[in-house]
Design brief:
- By secondary structure, the protein is of the alpha/beta class.
- Among the domains are: 49-198, Rossmann fold; 455-553, ANL, C-terminal domain (GMP Synthetase, Chain A, domain 3, 2-Layer Sandwich).
- Helix content is 30%, strand content 22%.
- The strands form seven sheets. The protein has a five-stranded parallel beta sheet. The protein has a five-stranded mixed beta sheet with strand order 12-13-14-15-16. A four-stranded mixed beta sheet has the order 2-1-11-10, with helices on both faces.
- Strand 24, helix 15 and strand 25 (527-530) form a beta-alpha-beta unit.
- The protein is globular, with a radius of gyration of 23 Å.
Length: 555
């Protein structure tokens, strides 16, 4: 691979950032422990109007670790976290690490079938979940999974009346057959915990990502991966103890895990959590805590721009802004800067790169490619080699379009229990991303397309076959094909084409509702078109490209 570390852009665009770095911690828990020792009484988590210090987080997570140990959780076990962006996610993450366990973040939007897959594939021994998610989803799934310990919690914990508008109407409903997280955390016995010895090769997270050719796979983000990625954000964004992170990205996503929590423990600095993304809450909390930094999907910034009173609010502190997960239109960045006076920087990475592999250094402006109009996604961060390769993995010349390949300390060692998929996607430790792009003569990278059929809806990756499988479960559906179509807000939207059985009677709204009940909100098709026949090749393969073209012109 091309060793782009020596290219002249590094000094030009990343002033003060070294070409290489040796992270100062062997594991991600050590970053938190150092913060708890040096900044014990400083805020770690702001949650609406409540604040948890680093010391309090340390004590509560140790108590929870002791409680989980008493329930039989031990080193190497997988602990699934199925909650929204609340303090308990962070406490449970730290508690699992204090036992040497592996954290499995689970998107709280997942429904029964999807949750069951993750719990079974990871072999999760424990599940930490919201009371409402337990009642509505998890309780029905758990009998068919290896989970033996269930801990529930409430989004109302740590809050005092009056409740924030986002949580108006929320109620406690603790299931009696589960253990309460705060009761475990506040019980006696944490002092009996022995320090755990974690190394950089130990797995910190199993983050599930939909592959381009199959069902979700658990990427094994190691402690070394997480530590390195946190250093990349700290140094390339120029973060220090005066900064405040706004936790916009889901903590179930690699961006939230690294660009919010991990980097906050490294600096150390506070992180602001607010249950789930909501523009009104975002505006209130930026003003209250003078938040300075976030990484969010471009749809979050679009939502902010379209809020009727956002331009009247004091967002003067909110200046270290980054976006990734989906292509960004230069016009959107320009519109945001015109409205708020702040430039949105790009960052590129995948679950398999533990978030950042390419970053626009803070203060730099990404170029726009004059040929394609694409906005640069950044330059490779330190210790990272990246290149554009052809189908045979041969390196292409500057300007040529091909697949983006990456190697570096942030690349995961593989997928959980999937050696064949690991060997195919990252042979020899080089990750072949499936994203198509090019590099210009100054070392800037651009993403212009995707190699496979993956749909990217508002930063969430959707595997078409998974949606099709749900459609095929409807008794009236004969054939189904799912494609991504352009969407001004989400970047891409999921659209399905179906043909019906001879006696099948169903309309588009009914099919959309059918999918919506069975899938996370970002996955179900926003539009469905019923055709007499789906276009096919002579061999019977459905012509997705023809459907995609049809979906683009008929919306």
């Amino acid at each position: 691979m091309g060793a782009y570390l020596d290219r002249p852009w590094l000094g030009r665009y990343a002033s003060g950032v070294p070409g290489e770095i040796a992270p100062s911690f062997s594991n991600a828990l050590a970053m938190f422990n150092a913060a708890a020792a040096s900044a014990a009484e400083r805020p770690f988590i702001h949650y609406f109007g409540s604040t948890i210090t680093f010391d309090a987080a340390g004590r509560l997570s140790s108590g929870l670790a002791h409680g989980l140990r008493e329930l039989g959780i031990e080193r190497g076990d997988r602990v699934a976290l199925y909650v929204q962006n609340i303090p308990q996610f962070v406490l449970a993450q730290l508690a699992a690490w204090k036992l040497g366990a592996i954290v499995v973040p689970v998107n709280p939007m997942l429904k029964h079938r999807e949750l069951g897959f993750v719990l079974n594939d990871s072999g999760a021994a424990a599940l930490v979940t919201l009371e409402s998610l337990y009642r509505d989803v998890a309780a029905a799934v758990l009998p068919d999974t290896p989970v033996r310990v269930v801990v529930t919690t409430s989004e109302l914990d740590f809050l005092e009346p009056p409740l924030p508008p986002l949580l108006a109407g929320a109620e406690r409903s603790r299931p009696p057959e589960t253990h309460d997280l705060l009761e475990l955390a506040r019980a006696q016995g944490a002092e009996s915990l022995d320090p755990v010895d974690l190394g950089p090769d130990d797995v910190a997270f199993l983050t599930y990502t939909s592959g381009t050719t199959g069902p979700p796979k658990g990427a094994m983000n190691t402690h070394g991966n997480v530590v390195f990625a946190a250093h990349a954000y700290r140094d390339w964004v120029h973060l220090d103890e005066d900064d405040v992170v706004l936790g916009v990205a889901p903590l179930s996503h690699i961006t939230g895990l690294v660009a919010h929590i991990a980097v906050a423990t490294l600096v150390p600095m506070p992180v602001v959590l607010f249950y789930r993304f909501d523009v009104d809450a975002l505006l209130d909390l930026v003003e209250r805590y003078r938040a300075t930094f976030t990484v969010a999907s471009i749809t979050a910034f679009i939502g902010l721009m379209n809020h009727p009173t956002a331009h009247e609010r004091d967002l003067s502190s909110f200046v270290k802004l980054y976006s990734g997960g989906a292509p960004i239109a230069p016009a959107t960045v320009e519109a945001y800067e015109r409205l708020f006076g702040t430039y949105i920087h790009s960052v590129y990475g995948l679950t398999e790169t533990t978030s950042p592999s390419h970053i626009v250094p803070f203060g730099a402006r990404a170029p726009v490619d004059p040929r394609s109009g694409a906005l640069g996604v950044g330059v490779p961060t330190f210790n990272t080699m990246s290149s554009i390769v052809d189908e045979s993995h041969g390196e292409l010349a500057v300007g040529d379009i091909g697949e983006i390949a990456i190697s570096g300390p942030q690349v995961v060692p593989g997928y959980w229990n999937k050696p064949d998929e690991t060997a195919q996607t990252m042979p020899g430790g080089v990750l072949y991303t499936g994203d198509v792009g090019f590099m210009d003569e100054d070392g800037w990278f651009y993403v212009v397309d995707r190699k496979k059929e993956m749909i990217n809806a508002a930063g969430f990756k959707v595997w078409p076959r998974e949606v099709e499988d749900v459609l095929y479960a409807h008794p009236a559906v004969r054939e189904a094909a799912v494609v991504g179509v352009p969407d001004a807000y989400r970047g891409e939207s999921v659209k399905a084409f179906v043909s019906l059985k001879a006696n099948g009677i169903v309309d588009e709204p009914e099919l959309i509702a059918f999918c919506r009940e069975r899938m996370a909100a970002y996955k179900y098709p926003r539009a469905i078109e019923i055709l007499d026949e789906l276009p096919k090749t002579p061999s019977g393969k459905i012509l997705r490209r023809e459907l995609r073209d049809r979906g683009t012109t008929r919306r």
